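Thread: "does anyone have the structure for this chain?"

Original post by V.I.:
We have the sequence but no experimental structure in hand. Need at least a predicted one for the grant figures.
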Amino acid sequence: MHIISLNAIILNIPPCLVKLPILIKRVDEVMDIVSKEKRHQIMSAVKNKNTKPELAVRSFLHRSGFRFRLHRGDLPGCPDIVLPKYRTVVFVHGCFWHRHPGCSRTTLPKTNTQFWERKFAENVDRDMVNREALSELGWKVIVIWECEVKDESYQSLLLHFLRNDG
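Reply from O.Q.:
Generated one for you, tokens below.
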């Protein structure tokens, strides 16, 4: 039995032609202005480790006398910075990708909005699950946002937390 795709029906393609190997762009996909290979190259360049904000936080912690481990894969969410002595993990989140509430960097792309809304919701849900799992394992979780790193507003709070509560 041959199954006719919904896209073939929407595009009004006769059933006799559906069996032919024709290439049709899916109706629900948004046309991209660059090739698939170029898009892959662009997205591959998006870093998830050793970002500038993460390096700034690591540098600050090291200058302040704290020693830590990086990207421990055996912990939920592979935290950016792990301070085993203090049983504390630090995530340095980008405001755009992790949806910092109230931040001006938390914008929604104007094209393919359904895809982006779903992508961002999955990111936020995954972050919450990872934080809860770490808490259940006895770890304290600190999230530092990209915009806080730029204005260094996180520094005094982080030091206070680690020195007094750690």
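V.I.: this helps a lot. The first strand starts at residue 69 and ends at 70.
O.Q.: and The CA atoms of residues 46 and 157 lie 29 Å apart.
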